[in-house]
Specification:
Blueprint (H helix, E strand, L loop, with lengths): L1 E6 L15 H11 L4 E6 L19 E4 L4 E4 L2 E5 L4 H11 L5 E5 L4 E3 L4 H8 L7 E2 L3 H4 L4 E5 L3 H8 L5 E7 L2 E6 L4 H9 L5 E7 L5 H6 L2 E5 L5 H6 L2 E3 L7 H7 L4
Helix pairs in contact: 1-9
Length: about 260
């Protein structure tokens, strides 16, 4: 039986505060990538361009579940591609006109925002060097897989979300959320990957609200201690040390997962 392990990126294998992959995490991923009975995958809200922060280790991963499950790659082959419909994007833009809300449109290799202000600058800090262009009609010439919203009041976003029942809201920092289709998630993307596999044990590791369903899907679900989402810890089988502690290799070894 093989072991398939999916890792979230931000604050799971990549420390956003230090802009580095912790040493023990590097050691763990290198070792796992060399094992014949282990298959590695990434499951992230990022698109391909935003993975440049971990470009040195990307060859370790057979699968990449991107933009919360809307785009899935096995090695260099696209195995799932489900962009948003243009009419749905226009509906969001029309509904939010007149409100002080930044709307981001996420493609695979690029992204744009309807207008730039300090909120966007703050939100992009964690993404290290990603600066979306200002282009309200980005969706006309680009496939868009996910939307995000920034507002001073998260309650305003949640109020608007109630008028958009085809979307799910995934918080990622105060006043910032992702909008995806209801049937899109990291878990659904992982299931697309598993269609190409057999006789496996599935492990997943994450820290975000968008990791809850993949934790539930897995035979072994691991939540990072640095998560701010209590539900993730409740669903997980194990809690890994805080990313600042840099103990992920020791943790996997203790559980006999390496």
């Amino acid at each position: 039986m093989k072991t398939i392990i999916f890792f979230d990126v931000d604050n799971t294998i990549y420390n956003s505060s230090t802009a580095k992959i912790p040493d023990q995490t590097l050691k763990l991923l290198k070792l796992l990538s060399e094992k014949e009975d282990v298959v590695l995958g990434l499951a992230t809200g990022r698109g391909l361009k935003k993975l440049e922060i971990i470009k040195d280790i990307l060859p370790y991963f057979t699968y990449k579940v991107l933009v919360n499950g809307a785009f899935v790659v096995k090695n260099q082959e696209i195995i799932y591609d489900n962009p948003m419909q243009i009419k749905d994007i226009i509906e969001v833009l029309d509904l939010t006109k007149g409100y002080d809300i930044n709307i981001g449109m996420v493609g695979i290799d690029d992204e744009a925002v309807n207008y730039w202000d300090d909120r966007v600058g703050y939100g992009m800090q964690a993404l290290r060097g990603i600066f979306p262009k200002v282009n309200e009609t980005f969706y006309v010439d680009h496939k868009v897989y996910q939307l995000w919203m920034f507002a001073d009041l998260e309650s305003l976003i949640l109020c608007i979300a109630k008028k958009l029942p085809k979307f799910r809201v995934i918080p990622w920092h105060k006043g910032g959320v992702d909008f995806t289709y209801l049937n899109m998630s990291k878990a659904s993307g992982i299931q697309k990957c598993l269609e190409h596999e057999s006789d496996y044990r599935l492990i997943s590791v994450g820290d975000g609200a968008n990791d809850i369903e993949m934790i539930e899907l897995s035979d072994i679900g691991i939540a990072m201690d640095n998560t701010r989402f209590s539900e993730l810890k409740e669903k997980a089988d194990y809690i890994a040390p805080h990313i600042h502690e840099d103990q992920l290799y020791d943790f996997f070894k203790k559980l006999n997962l390496v």
